């Protein structure tokens, strides 16, 4: 069954094939956070090579990075370096509260580096997304090299300051990989909600959706079961013009459903809604992807307590009320837009390209162990869709080759934190590999909850996680300074 997923991108594009839907619609869900006390930073630009690994393209571009040094203890205070995600770096800077909260304790400088091709860091300016030739340098390897070169430039002015990389979601993957690829540049890394194993033959393609389903199943009686039943109900009602009109009115859609193919888009929109709710199931009110109540899935599930005898219309009335918890919690939306489920601060088109090159993350559903319609993963279909969009084909196993897959025990000083409610934990490191490749699990945490600002409603598990992360940071910094002192003594001999 072909499906359609629409994105708010630079050109309002729509994707028309099953293969790309699961890979692209979540876009690794890099979330912003609720409003917090004002912060101050300075904005800088650094000249980066467009191509770090070849010699024909010798052009440069300006990489944006943000610096906050209010608490930095000169001359050798540590640097916490945020490895930017697929979006505007100011969004992550303003909302990664954990770094701001520990800066004073560590006497640390904070640096937030923007990922190439996102925000203002465009290698070819307005032409950066014009075609695949210009997009060719949008890779994680190039981004990591950007970070390494930038850090080395900073370190030339403060050589005794140890650097720790920090990131969440895709940014967390980059944080871990930066430590793996450039251990001479960073002394350790915090990789929060980083699915570094969500690649072919590393984890089951259905694991992601199983966790989403578990979140709903334990948040309300019959909740997951009724969502599972809703797809057939939508198929039944959307089979007629009057049914399409009823669905459009019941869900207050901005663009009415007019054809059966519109119902496919509608179902994809709902599927993405349930996934986003799983990622942002936080214990307090928050306003980022959408304004939401505390424990939003529990609130959603109050509308989905029907028994198995419920009619299609009653069931979908409950689903519409549940969806409006996500899209209209404040009551300010006059209609619901099926082409938008999350913030536009994320670079959807850029991530789509990355998914079509290196970030091949198989996802599938079976409708039994999860609450979604059955959908197989087909690399060939995925590859064909990518070729149709960009004229390129993904390298199925390149990420495993490049970053070591599950064979990473030779590395050191990386914390992998994961929330038990977060579907991305399916591809995360959830057990200790060595004494210095450690897992911190947050059973009642959603997507990188530990990187958010602390609140009085935080569960004890995330408070403990943050305290342990800070302890590791302090140990890494102390060891780095000890080594630096020893090296300095040797140089004097």
Automatic annotation (TrEMBL):
EC number: 3.4.16.2
Cellular location(s): Lysosome
Keyword Nucleotide-binding: no
Domain of life where this protein originates: Eukaryota
Molecular function GO terms recorded: dipeptidyl-peptidase activity; serine-type carboxypeptidase activity
Signal peptide residue numbers: 1-19
GO-annotated cellular components: lysosome
Keyword Mitochondrion on entry: no
Catalytic reaction(s) noted: Cleavage of a -Pro-|-Xaa bond to release a C-terminal amino acid
Keywords: Carboxypeptidase, Disulfide bond, Glycoprotein, Hydrolase, Lysosome, Protease, Signal, Zymogen
Chief location category: other
An annotated GO BP: angiogenesis involved in wound healing
Assembly behavior: Homodimer.
Family classification: Belongs to the peptidase S28 family.
Function: Cleaves C-terminal amino acids linked to proline in peptides such as angiotensin II, III and des-Arg9-bradykinin. This cleavage occurs at acidic pH, but enzymatic activity is retained with some substrates at neutral pH.
Protein name: Lysosomal Pro-X carboxypeptidase
Organism of derivation: Oryzias melastigma
């Amino acid at each position: 069954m072909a499906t359609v997923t629409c994105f708010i991108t630079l050109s309002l594009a729509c994707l028309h094939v099953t293969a790309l839907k699961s890979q692209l619609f979540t876009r690794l869900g890099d979330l912003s956070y609720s409003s917090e006390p004002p912060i101050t930073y300075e904005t800088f630009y650094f000249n980066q090579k467009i191509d770090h690994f070849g010699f024909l393209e010798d052009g440069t571009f300006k990489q944006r990075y943000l610096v906050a040094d209010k608490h930095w203890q000169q001359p050798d205070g540590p640097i916490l370096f945020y490895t930017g995600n697929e979006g505007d770096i100011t969004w992550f800077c303003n909302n990664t509260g954990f770094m701001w909260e520990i800066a004073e304790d560590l006497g640390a400088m904070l640096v937030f580096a923007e990922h190439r091709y996102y925000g203002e860091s465009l290698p070819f300016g307005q032409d950066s997304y014009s075609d695949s030739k210009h997009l060719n340098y949008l890779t994680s390897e190039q981004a990591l090299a950007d970070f390494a070169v930038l850090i080395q430039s900073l370190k030339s002015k403060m050589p005794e300051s140890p650097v720790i990389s920090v990131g969440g979601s895709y940014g967390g993957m980059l944080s871990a990989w930066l430590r793996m690829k450039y251990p001479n540049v960073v002394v350790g890394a915090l990789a929060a909600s980083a699915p570094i194993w969500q690649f072919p033959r590393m984890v089951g393609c259905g694991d992601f959706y199983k966790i989403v389903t578990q979140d709903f199943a334990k948040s309300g009686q019959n909740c997951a079961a009724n969502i599972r039943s809703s797809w057939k109900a939508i198929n039944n009602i959307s089979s007629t013009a009057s049914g399409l009109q009823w669905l459009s009115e019941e869900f207050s859609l901005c663009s009415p459903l007019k054809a059966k193919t519109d119902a496919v888009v509608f179902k994809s929109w709902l599927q993405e809604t349930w996934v986003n709710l799983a990622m942002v199931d936080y214990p307090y009110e928050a306003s980022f992807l959408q304004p939401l109540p505390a424990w939003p899935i529990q609130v959603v599930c109050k509308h989905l307590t029907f028994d198995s005898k419920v009619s299609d219309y009653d069931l979908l009335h409950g689903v519409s009320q549940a969806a409006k918890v996500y899209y209209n919690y404040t009551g300010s939306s006059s209609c619901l837009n099926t082409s938008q489920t999350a913030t536009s601060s994320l670079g959807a088109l850029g991530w789509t390209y990355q998914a079509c090159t290196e970030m091949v993350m198989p996802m599938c559903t079976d409708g039994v162990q999860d609450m979604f319609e059955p959908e197989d993963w087909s690399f060939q279909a995925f590859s064909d869709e990518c070729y149709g969009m960009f004229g390129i084909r993904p390298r199925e196993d390149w990420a495993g080759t490049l970053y070591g897959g599950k064979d990473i025990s030779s590395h050191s000083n990386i914390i992998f934190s994961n929330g038990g409610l977060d579907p991305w934990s399916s591809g995360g490191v959830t057990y200790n590999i060595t004494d210095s490749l450690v897992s911190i699990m947050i059973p009642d945490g959603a997507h990188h909850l530990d990187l958010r600002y602390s609140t009085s409603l935080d569960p004890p598990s995330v408070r403990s996680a943050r305290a342990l992360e800070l302890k590791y940071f302090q140990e890494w910094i102390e060891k780095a300074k000890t080594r630096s002192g020893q090296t300095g003594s040797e140089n004097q001999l």
